[in-house]
Specification:
Strands 1-2 form a two-stranded antiparallel sheet. It has helices at 2-36, 81-93, 113-118, 124-129, 131-148, 150-156, 168-178, 180-188, 203-209, and strands at residues 160-161, 164-165. Strand 1 (160-161) and strand 2 form a beta hairpin. 49% of the residues lie in helices and 2% in strands. By secondary structure, the chain is mainly α. Helix 7 crosses helix 8 (180-188) and helix 7 (168-178) packs antiparallel against helix 9. The longest helix is centred in the N-terminal third of the chain and has 35 residues, at 2-36.
Amino acid sequence: MHRQYQDGDSTWKLQFMINRWSFYIGIVVLIGFISSAFKPIESFNHNWFYVDENEELLYQFPSEKPSDYINTSIPFTGKYFIGFKEAIAFKESQGKYSKVNSLGYLGKYQFGKSTLASIGIKDSMLFLRSHKMQEKAFIALLKKNKWELREVIKEYRGKMIDGVRITESGILAAAHLGGAGSVRKFLESNGRKKCKDNYGTSVKSYMKEFGGYETHNIKPESSPKVTK
C-alpha cells in the first residue's frame, strides 16, 4: 500500500513537470512568433522600395491644396511631391514660416519681394503671417517657372550636364534658388557657367540635390496669381 502511494506520487510529479515545461515552451514559441512580425523589411530584397539616385519617378500625388501639408510634423523623405516641397523648405529655412534671412527673403520657402509681386502678392507682412499664402505661393512659382522653362525641360531632361543628371524637379528647384535665367545659363553653357546665389549656393547643387522628385502634375502657367 505504501509502495503504491510512492508510485502515484512520482507519476503525478512527472506529469506536473511535463505540463510546466510545455507551458514555458509554448510561451517562448508565442513570443518568437509575435517578435517576427516586427522585424524590419530588408529593402534591398524588394524592388518596389529601392530608388536609384538617377531615377526620376512619376506619382499621382502632388496636391495643390495647402491643407494637405500645413502643420504636419512627418519627416517626408520620399520622392513624392510633398517630399520635394518639404525638402526645399528645410533647405531654405528649416521649414520655418516666420523665417527672414539677412537679405530680406521671407518665409518657409524664402521668397524675395520682387518674386512675390510677380505672383500677385504685395503685402509681404501678410504673406509672412499666412501659412496658407506661403504654400500657395510655392505652387504658383513652380507653375510660373515650369512655363518659362518648358522648352528647357523638354530639351535637357534626362541628359548629363557637368556630372548631374537633369530632371524636371531639379530644374524647378534650381529656378526657385536662382531664377529661370540662371538655369538657362547653366544648361546652355553645358555647366560652364557656375551660377550661384548671394550665399554661394549653386544652381548645380540644387539640380543634383532635388533631382528625381515627382513634379509632372504641376501645370505650367504663364501668370499664376495667389489670392488670399
